[in-house]
Amino acid sequence: MTSTSTPRATGGAGAAGTEGVREYTALGGDWDDIAADAARLGDERVVVNMGPQHPSTHGVLRIVLEIEGETVTEARAGIGFLHTGIEKNMEYRTFTQGVTFCTRMDYVAPLFQETAYCLAVEKLLDITDDVPERATLIRVLMMELNRVASHLIAIGTGGNELGATTMMTIAFREREEILRLFEAITGLRMNHAYIRPGGVAQDLPPGTTARIREAIPRIRNGIGELEKLTLANPIFIGRTKGVGYLPLAGAMALGCAGPILRSAGLPYDLRKAQPYCGYETYDFEVPTHTDADAYARVVVRFAEARESLKIVEQVLDRLEAQERSGKHPVMVADRKIAWPAQLAVGSDGQGNSLDHIREIMGTSMEALIHHFKLVTEGFRVPAGQVYQQIEHAKGIMGVHLVSDGGTRPYRVHFRDPSFNNLQSLGIMCEGGGLADVVVAVASIDPVLGGVDR
Amino acid sequence: MTEENVQSDGGATPENVEGALARPERAPIDIVDVRTGMFGVRGTGDTSGFGGLVRTVALPGPSERPYGGYFDEVVDILAEVLGEQGIAFDDAVEKVVVFRGELTIHVAREHLLAVVRALRDDQDLRFELCLGVNGVHYPNDTGRELHCIYPLNSVTHNRSIRLEVAVPDADPHVPSVVEVYPANDWHERETYDFFGVIFDGHPALTRIEMPDDWVGHPQRKDYPLGGIEVEFKGATIPAPDNRRSYS
Lengths: 453, 247
Fold this sequence. Notes:
Chain A is mostly helical. Chain A contains 18 helices and eight strands.
């Protein structure tokens, strides 16, 4: 479709203000005819759809580009192709079941959604301080490992979209190390539903801390390898320096946080500003850059991944110190909230602990009733609303949770960082080249599962 | 207590609001709904004996000073800045709620733009980041069915507050804050898409998640979740929104 007046790219066909605009539908027709027609009219401006299925749009993202030659004059993102109604679904499940839904939003960083949601539920229950120390340590461990995995995906797929397949394979190789750790801890590589309101589903299996310690040098090496391959590479520098520029004022106005904001020079990190999960007790830096372009964002992500590994090591020290003093709970003591079952590996590879089943089926009718009530009905959460913010790998994740005093969330809304950050696509792309759109999208690092929810 | 008398007197009956008579100056607790029965059973077939249950859904009511922490300061400065513009604080702010250590300022929609402008621009407030807007639908909160919640962060002072605007379903208009916080562009489109709140002054208020020709606003409470019944070993498991509910 080309246009002769000034319709905005966001306006649909037949929208007000587009009367009299010549429209070409390129559906199986001969592109030469359309091009010739456009040339006859002396119309250089072309509106092009990139996506919704395109190898370099990070998922089912549609980008509507108005181009003049190779220059992008207007860029708008069209989203919604992956909308699955997760928030609506959560209104029909108990508070505990909600975790299995929200973990599927940003599937590259599932543990952030789980933690943010559980922190919100705990705040509304007013049990934030009752969550056991060990559960909080495990949450921090999982989130920081997840941050490394998410940043690796951001950098690796960004490289892949520029044609650097090696960047992608190295990044995925190192992410695989982390996913293996997740599998050992939660049983799943993604969509864990491991962090639950009140704590975590189960304690770390024996030997986990040693296993993570053993993996950290390998991950760190891999990050170093990727860093060397990337940051000094003249092609990568040529493609990313000065591209996707979004200065501090723009990032603030558009509400962009995370690596985008920090690449513009503001060290705003909720782990420092509004600590949760005990982040104020860890020693780490908030890396920043001042160039505010795609290259700076990659530099910031590399530095953040290294800082995250530093936090992981500190968590491991504390977990090991704790393990030396016996067994510690990973779920709140309140039996009205804590999930009644303890998981144990059965002959089928999963299941409840046999001791627990023996107790509820054989000796205690009350325990059986309690188990049944808590699992089918769930616990009640006082009426009210809370807003919990955490520093997601991609920016500020906010969870707005409303309860009506029942066993299900009345309304839960996730302010996904990618959803917000993707708004900056237009300002990053307009005036640049068509090929730079790919770089800008990669530097925002949107995950469409989180954007559309 | 029936739903009618809750609506007729704004939710403050002596039966359900303890101390309302003793302290008449205090605003009533925010009752948004009244539920009857249990397990979602209606009409015949309720052999549980729980059919007579009546439960009011009351959100935390207005707080009294001191609010604690920086909340008093934020509210005081906001009142001062609004006063300089000739807006009476009581006209602009319906109530101030502190719950679970979080401050919610309920704002009248006519003054929303003035309030967000003051919150962003005044050097002692400086809420530079707006984390979007989010809707909540209370179908039985007559005249205030649709609520919009704006979480705000101040990077300068490291503070977080929240604004809440309530509008009737019959007139779901809220001024757009995009001119103050451009970040709210997509968030307002999302709230329009899901709740049908019309943000006046938004540059392009179109659906964002649902298809353009979609009918209805999916996150409203009267919009069904949908789903199909699943047969499992001869038994039929109803779709999630038709299952037994406990609240």
